[in-house]
């Protein structure tokens, strides 16, 4: 066999083309041992150690790709460090995806990694279509044998393939969906990339109800009825159904642009008077929908709920004096303010607008005049703000969680730390609830489409609602949110937050606010202070409303 020759492996069906990985004179099918025919033969020798050599990388990649191309899954599996998993996965690749022809072309090795391209043909019920993509494999040394082996991962077969996923070709599970904005115009995922996973979710949930017909596709089946598959090739288009959403295209465009400035960020916007979701955007776009599904500590944005609890329980009203020392000890743990600032003779409104941690902890401590049970914060979050109820948004979304706490977790929860988790959508709903005077569950598609039941919560009392709006206005005009909210039209309100995360040197930046009939919240991972990173994101979204 001459180096550089095209090597037919199985009746012209699959071939491996010698590219950067050379073949030399080695016989592919005589003792496939990763390029060293003595490995596994001379058992008296100690296993090799140390990094794999360039020759081992080249030969192991060549042998694995050839076995895969030859339709010999067991042999391919034995050339990996996980043959029990790899063998069946290689077998399922051809059978499940209905691949009838393929050419695999390796590229030059880069250290232990070998990139390659696959140019295949998929045929199903007389319909054929070419399919091409790029992937890569990594060669490692076997821990027990010392043999050079392909480090197994499903992404070797296709970059989007996961452990639970399987390639399938056939009639799509549901017709594709043409998602429309609130005005009835199509929402293009090319123009609004953050909507890609949402449109996929809408297809899974509502595709059969939108009047379309399914096409023939190749997709990665997630293995779950509720998690949408990922289409990788359309052999024959079906007719998409149409589905109207609540998305505002102007606000959505602003949200997409705003989060793009950060590596990891999410924002959601809601109409307080109805609960309609006007925008959702993530960076990076098109992947995990952090804005809806994130479960992160919300930091001081939680003080919206804590302040409501304090007013409802008679601890303090916005005009009441509260202590704001530089630090405070509660439940044997010390809590402090940013840069250890303090406020002399301040009110609850002052503590809120300047985000004084110690005021919210000291006023509710076990030593305070007014005792509050540890369960009250969670009850307030649920009964007044809908957090933790079963939200039926129309696509998967986290409901937020304010679990029961004990010990030092309780004072930490008052300032949005501890075990509290929320998404940007949950925090946007806090602002929307304050602005509206009551919780209206956020939604993306009308409930009449499937008669799902929305979560409900009691309205805030007029005094509590007015108190929250007054403190949020002070924050937006003369507090920690003033710089970010400058230029945002009134009536407006805001709350900043920063949440410490284990293992992160810099805290997550949170910000939520409202302007007119639009509320929004954003989180920027490792963004620092709330007004520095998340604040400008929210402001840009509100200005577009």
Number of helices: 15
Mean pLDDT: 89
Share of helix among residues?
Answer: 25-40%
Q: Flag low-confidence runs.
A: 1-14, 18-44
Strand fraction band?
A: 15-25%
Shape: globular
Trace the largest sheet across and list its strands.
1-2-3-4-5-6
Calculate Rg over CA atoms.
Answer: 29 Å
Number of strands: 18
Structural class category? alpha+beta
Main beta-sheet annotation: 6 strands, mixed
- What is the straight-line distance between the termini? 68 Å
Topology:
Layout: E1 6-10, E2 14-17, H1 54-69, H2 73-78, H3 83-97, E3 99-106, E4 113-124, E5 127-141, E6 148-150, E7 166-171, E8 177-180, H4 196-206, E9 216-221, E10 230-236, E11 241-244, H5 249-259, E12 265-270, E13 277-283, H6 290-293, H7 303-312, E14 327-330, E15 333-336, H8 348-353, H9 357-362, H10 376-385, H11 409-414, H12 424-436, H13 462-478, H14 482-485, E16 492-499, E17 508-515, E18 518-524, H15 534-544
Parallel strand pairs: 2-3, 8-11
Antiparallel strand pairs: 1-2, 3-4, 4-5, 5-6, 7-9, 9-10, 12-13, 12-18, 14-15, 16-17, 17-18
Helix pairs in contact: 5-15, 7-10, 7-13, 12-13
Report on this model:
The chain is of the alpha+beta class. The protein is built from 15 helices and 18 strands. The protein has a six-stranded mixed β-sheet. Strands 13-12-18-17-16 form a five-stranded antiparallel β-sheet, sandwiched between helices. It is globular, with a radius of gyration of 29 Å. 53% of the residues are buried.
Task: Please summarize what this structure is.
By secondary structure, the chain is α+β, with helices and mostly antiparallel strands. It has helices at 54-69, 73-78, 83-97, 196-206, 249-259, 290-293, 303-312, 348-353, 357-362, 376-385, 409-414, 424-436, 462-478, 482-485, 534-544, and strands at 6-10, 14-17, 99-106, 113-124, 127-141, 148-150, 166-171, 177-180, 216-221, 230-236, 241-244, 265-270, 277-283, 327-330, 333-336, 492-499, 508-515, 518-524.
């Amino acid at each position: 066999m001459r180096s550089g020759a095209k090597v037919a492996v199985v009746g012209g069906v699959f071939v491996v083309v010698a590219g950067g990985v050379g073949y030399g004179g080695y016989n592919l099918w005589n003792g496939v041992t990763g390029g060293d025919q003595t490995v596994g033969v001379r058992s008296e020798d100690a296993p090799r150690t140390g990094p794999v050599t360039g020759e081992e990388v080249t030969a192991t990649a060549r042998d694995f790709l050839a076995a895969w191309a030859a339709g010999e899954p067991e042999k391919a599996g034995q050339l990996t460090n996980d043959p029990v998993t790899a063998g069946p996965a290689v077998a399922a690749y051809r059978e499940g995806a209905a691949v009838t022809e393929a050419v695999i072309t390796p590229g030059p090795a880069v250290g232990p990694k070998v990139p390659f391209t696959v140019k295949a043909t998929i045929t199903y019920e007389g319909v054929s279509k070419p399919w091409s993509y790029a992937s890569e494999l990594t060669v490692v040394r076997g821990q027990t044998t010392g043999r050079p082996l392909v480090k197994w991962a499903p992404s070797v077969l296709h970059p989007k393939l996961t452990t639970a996923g399987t390639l399938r070709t056939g009639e799509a599970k549901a017709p594709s969906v043409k998602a429309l904005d609130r005005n009835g115009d199509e929402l293009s995922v090319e123009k609004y990339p953050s909507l890609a996973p949402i449109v996929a979710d809408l297809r899974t949930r509502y595709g059969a109800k939108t009047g379309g017909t399914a096409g023939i596709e190749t997709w990665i089946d997630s293995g779950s009825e509720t998690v949408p598959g990922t289409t990788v090739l359309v052999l024959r288009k079906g007719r998409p159904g149409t589905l109207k959403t609540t998305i505002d295209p102007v606000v959505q465009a602003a949200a997409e642009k705003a989060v793009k400035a950060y590596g990891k960020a999410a924002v959601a916007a809601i109409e307080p008077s109805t609960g309609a979701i006007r925008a959702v955007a993530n960076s990076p776009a098109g992947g995990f929908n952090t804005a809806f599904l994130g479960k992160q500590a919300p930091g001081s944005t939680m003080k919206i709920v804590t302040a409501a609890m304090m007013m409802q329980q008679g601890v303090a009203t916005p005009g009441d004096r509260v202590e704001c020392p530089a630090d405070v000890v509660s439940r044997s743990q010390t809590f402090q303010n940013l840069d250890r600032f303090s406020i002399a003779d301040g009110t609850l409104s002052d503590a809120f607008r300047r985000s004084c941690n110690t005021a919210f902890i000291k006023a509710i401590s076990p030593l305070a005049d007014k005792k509050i049970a540890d369960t009250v914060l969670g009850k307030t979050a649920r009964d007044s703000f809908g957090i933790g109820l079963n939200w039926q948004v129309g696509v998967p979304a986290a409901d937020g969680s304010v679990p029961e706490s004990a010990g030092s977790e309780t004072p930490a929860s008052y300032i949005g730390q501890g075990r509290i988790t929320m998404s940007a959508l949950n925090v946007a709903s806090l602002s929307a609830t304050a602005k509206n005077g009551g919780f209206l569950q956020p939604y993306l598609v009308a409930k009449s489409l499937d008669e799902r039941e929305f979560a409900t919560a009691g309205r805030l009392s007029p005094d509590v609602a007015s108190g929250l709006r007054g403190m949020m206005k002070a924050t937006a005009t003369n507090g920690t949110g003033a710089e970010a909210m400058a230029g945002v039209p009134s009536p407006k309100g805001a709350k900043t937050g920063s949440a410490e995360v284990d293992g992160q040197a810099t805290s997550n930046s949170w910000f939520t606010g409202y302007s007119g009939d639009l509320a929004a919240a954003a989180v920027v991972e490792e963004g620092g202070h709330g007004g520095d990173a998340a604040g400008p994101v929210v402001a840009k979204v509100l200005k577009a409303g």
